[in-house]
Here is the input.
Amino acid sequence: MGTFLTRGRRTAMPLLLCGLTLAVAACSDDNGNSGGSVGPDGSPSLPTFARVQFVLDSVQALPDVTSGDANGGFGLDMWATVVDRSGIVRVVAFSGAKEGDQWPASRVISAQKANTANSLSLDGLALSTANLYSAVQPGGSLFGLQESNPVNPDVAYGGNADDYGTTSDFMLGKRIGGVNVFGGGLALYDATGAVIGAIGVSGDSSCADHVIAWRVRHALVLDYIPGGVDPASGTDNIVFDIDGSGTSASGWGHPSCPPDPAAVVTIGQALPTSDPVRAIPVS
Here is the structure.
């Protein structure tokens, strides 16, 4: 499958995302390991490898003349993984000129994030991995969650490493498992409001991972979410409400991140306005 964007190209303009919200083509990398009653075989509403790669590369490269990084991170290259509703990996892609321009560990972390957001979101409630941080701390309502559902190491590290991040990635067509409890994983919702899978993004600070995942989901037109636990927006956005004692007022808080924690909070809290989730069309 050909790419839509030269690898490593960095020419994104501020209005680029407006052009990214074109209709998403059907995914064609189905195989016979998709049995079960959870999700549709082949996941036809999920984005293709080429589409994810193009959008990820473009969002990661968004310029910002003020901070130097519109996503609030260090401007590092990223990994992204898409899973379908049954947890099968459908896309693994990266930004940058070549594999190795990103943190190698972030390939599996992105898959872990996708699995988490998919497995903990419903048609009636979307939970991002960022929403889980405070809940899994000692004394939190979900303490111990991060120890459940471990990553399948045979799936994560099998195959030829030269194929990682391509349409031949060994993870494709397999269930990766894993639970991740910091920013970067978001469930994907089609125009009917149904959760059809999730995307996980990793490679920068966990706050920037969330921002990039949010913008990628928006550009893929898969953000018809039903609602979430963020008290401010009612979405699955990151919540910055952890006080000096480490307590989250909502129970769903996430710490801010370097390099500029104040700017990170501003960028994150603005996402429901700058890249708003979509309303389910009324039939």
Q: What stands out?
A: The helical segments are 49-60, 106-119, 153-157, 206-219, 261-274.
